[in-house]
Amino acid sequence: MTKRLRIALAQMNPHEGELRANAAKIRALRAEAAAAGADLLVTPEFSIAGYPPEDLVLKPAFQAMCDAEIAALAAETADGGPGLIVGGPWLDGGKLYNAAFLLDGGKIVARRAKHELPNYGVFDDKRVFDAGPAPGPVVFRGIRLGLMICEDWWFPAVSETLSESGAEILLSINGSPFEVEKAEARIDLAVARVVETGLPFVFLNQNCGQDELVFDGASFVLNADRKLAVRAPSFAETLILTDWEQPGDVWVCAAQELAKPLSRPAQIYHAMMLGLRDYVEKNRFPGIVLGLSGGIDSAISAAVAADALGPERVRAVMMPSPYTSQESLEDAAECARLLGIHYDTIPIGPAMAAYEAMLAPAFGNRAPDITEENLQSRIRGVTLMALSNKFGNMLLTTGNKSEMSTGYATIYGDMCGGYSVLKDVYKTDVFEVCRWRNANTPAGALGPDGAVMPERVITKPPSAELKPDQKDQDTLPPYEVLDAILNGLVERELSVDDLVAQGFERALILRVWRMLDRAEYKRRQAPPGVKIGQRAFGRDRRYPITNGFTGLIS
Ligand SMILES: Nc1ncnc2c1ncn2[C@@H]1O[C@H](COP(=O)(O)OP(=O)(O)OC[C@H]2O[C@@H]([n+]3cccc(C(=O)O)c3)[C@H](O)[C@@H]2O)[C@@H](O)[C@H]1O
Ligand SMILES: Nc1ncnc2c1ncn2[C@@H]1O[C@H](COP(=O)(O)OP(=O)(O)OP(=O)(O)O)[C@@H](O)[C@H]1O
Ligand SMILES: NC(=O)CC[C@H](N)C(=O)O
């Protein structure tokens, strides 16, 4: 007789450290899976606590509470309903593992420890976990499941061991952070595991924002014939029901309608939305406040916030100085109107005059310079922080990756803030994302349909408006050139010579190199922001501040 199995995959959003709430969510999902006739509910890597737990997992009280929640969930499986796979810490013989637990019939039936511990990029698994032995399959109601924990399946060894020891289905639970175009790369890699083992493959990921990381869901099932049977949407919390049967030797998952892959700007936008939404909600802010200048960075940051939180939770402030153009005043007001967000105007002229008078005796006869420019930015920072304090809204900072790379932002000025959505988005991508958002409404957006900023905001030359007729391009190379050089230096760790060979001017490369190095101290003090690419400032790219390496090898 053909064997059948219904597996429910919980592409869920855990709240890091909120163990009781996570257990309650898993309980509710199991009830939903039971109502849908599922035999097994699978949850992502470290689902009881959220991944990555960082040093929190080293606290004995945390480990004990995770144990208690998992034990309670195990006891509940005595009800004859679906079995359950949860992820969490496992302390055994003085070793601390990142483990998966199979719960069924009222008890913990099996435990498996993560074997491959990622310790590069944003990952520090080796800092807090011990590596488990190469695992064998777990047996669930007579079926041998090849249970793997995220990094375990990124190399061939674990899945090969599992298939050699009789696994029938490869089942991977993940905390796999988003990077642009990673969803497709995961599928390509999973095809390799299917080809090597001849087994079907399940990839289940969490769907949440966790500080700088966004986990994009995008779970999928590949059959042994390498065809995609299931592809869940990215950036959506969802319970996926999969139906399996074993007509011959190999299990086959019934094909479902596949979610459409997202374009590059759509991926970036959705990642920013989920990152900001979870940061604001999970840290319990009523909303956000930001400076709206009429420029493109604050316009798109405001749009992401309105889409993530709802326009009523976004407060924008135009703070004109004597250098603010009429165009900027009109554009900022129009952005706010299109988004339906709160909009205030607070001129900073009086504060500028007060500082000028206060500082005049100390400055003596020194000519005005960048000091006065930065003061404007700092007055705006103080004003926004005052609003944040008074109303409880978090200040959203607006600097993009091109600015963060070059130090083109004022520390304790426009760098004030709690979180950033653009920190890992180069200016050239900002333009693309704005065009995309003006033509599309993202899935799950709470903001308006249609355009969110006037076309002029995208097409006009970027300016900080800190002195008359100032343009970014007076100080920085054109953004297409700057971003191409930064892409080489930051994303691909190229040398000066490599970039010269690509046709860039040596003197310009060296200038950008110096700006990048000098701004490291600013980046260390910058708020966290959503990781978008493979080399985000923060956990991903850790450079020394004090650094004498000039790049001049020859
Ligand atoms: N390694 C280090 N460790 C600790 N502190 C260090 C440091 N290097 C410099 N510093 C300190 O940093 C300070 C200089 O930094 P900071 O005050 O930020 O000023 P600075 O980097 O000199 O100037 C800010 C730049 O950002 C531009 N800007 C400002 C505002 C908005 C925008 C925009 O369009 O978005 C652009 C502005 O036009 C200017 O080019 C100095 O006080 C210096 O002592
Ligand atoms: N007149 C202003 N009113 C309100 N906020 C401002 C104003 N000028 C600057 N800001 C705030 O400071 C940030 C840095 O802005 P600035 O205009 O100096 O450079 P930018 O990188 O071109 O940003 P944007 O594209 O948003 O203008 C802005 O994104 C905004 O949040
Ligand atoms: N949690 C993990 O082990 C993640 C590592 C994996 N290589 C990924 O980026 O998806």
Automatic annotation (TrEMBL):
<feature type="binding site">
    <location>
        <position position="522"/>
    </location>
    <ligand>
        <name>deamido-NAD(+)</name>
    </ligand>
</feature>
<feature type="binding site">
    <location>
        <position position="398"/>
    </location>
    <ligand>
        <name>ATP</name>
    </ligand>
</feature>
<dbReference type="InterPro" id="IPR003010">
    <property type="entry name" value="C-N_Hydrolase"/>
</dbReference>
<dbReference type="GO" id="GO:0003952">
    <property type="term" value="F:NAD+ synthase (glutamine-hydrolyzing) activity"/>
</dbReference>
<protein>
    <recommendedName>
        <fullName>Glutamine-dependent NAD(+) synthetase</fullName>
        <ecNumber>6.3.5.1</ecNumber>
    </recommendedName>
</protein>
<feature type="binding site">
    <location>
        <position position="176"/>
    </location>
    <ligand>
        <name>L-glutamine</name>
    </ligand>
</feature>
<comment type="pathway">
    <text>Cofactor biosynthesis; NAD(+) biosynthesis; NAD(+) from deamido-NAD(+) (L-Gln route): step 1/1.</text>
</comment>
<feature type="binding site">
    <location>
        <position position="120"/>
    </location>
    <ligand>
        <name>L-glutamine</name>
    </ligand>
</feature>
<keyword id="KW-0520">NAD</keyword>
<dbReference type="InterPro" id="IPR014445">
    <property type="entry name" value="Gln-dep_NAD_synthase"/>
</dbReference>
<comment type="similarity">
    <text>Belongs to the NAD synthetase family.</text>
</comment>
<feature type="binding site">
    <location>
        <position position="374"/>
    </location>
    <ligand>
        <name>deamido-NAD(+)</name>
    </ligand>
</feature>
<dbReference type="InterPro" id="IPR022310">
    <property type="entry name" value="NAD/GMP_synthase"/>
</dbReference>
<feature type="active site" description="Proton acceptor; for glutaminase activity">
    <location>
        <position position="45"/>
    </location>
</feature>
<dbReference type="InterPro" id="IPR014729">
    <property type="entry name" value="Rossmann-like_a/b/a_fold"/>
</dbReference>
<dbReference type="InterPro" id="IPR003694">
    <property type="entry name" value="NAD_synthase"/>
</dbReference>
<dbReference type="Pfam" id="PF02540">
    <property type="entry name" value="NAD_synthase"/>
</dbReference>
<feature type="domain" description="CN hydrolase">
    <location>
        <begin position="5"/>
        <end position="246"/>
    </location>
</feature>
<keyword id="KW-0436">Ligase</keyword>
<dbReference type="InterPro" id="IPR036526">
    <property type="entry name" value="C-N_Hydrolase_sf"/>
</dbReference>
<feature type="active site" description="For glutaminase activity">
    <location>
        <position position="114"/>
    </location>
</feature>
<dbReference type="Pfam" id="PF00795">
    <property type="entry name" value="CN_hydrolase"/>
</dbReference>
<comment type="similarity">
    <text>In the C-terminal section; belongs to the NAD synthetase family.</text>
</comment>
<feature type="binding site">
    <location>
        <position position="182"/>
    </location>
    <ligand>
        <name>L-glutamine</name>
    </ligand>
</feature>
<feature type="binding site">
    <location>
        <begin position="291"/>
        <end position="298"/>
    </location>
    <ligand>
        <name>ATP</name>
    </ligand>
</feature>
<feature type="active site" description="Nucleophile; for glutaminase activity">
    <location>
        <position position="150"/>
    </location>
</feature>
<keyword id="KW-0547">Nucleotide-binding</keyword>
<keyword id="KW-0067">ATP-binding</keyword>
<feature type="binding site">
    <location>
        <position position="403"/>
    </location>
    <ligand>
        <name>deamido-NAD(+)</name>
    </ligand>
</feature>
<comment type="function">
    <text>Catalyzes the ATP-dependent amidation of deamido-NAD to form NAD. Uses L-glutamine as a nitrogen source.</text>
</comment>
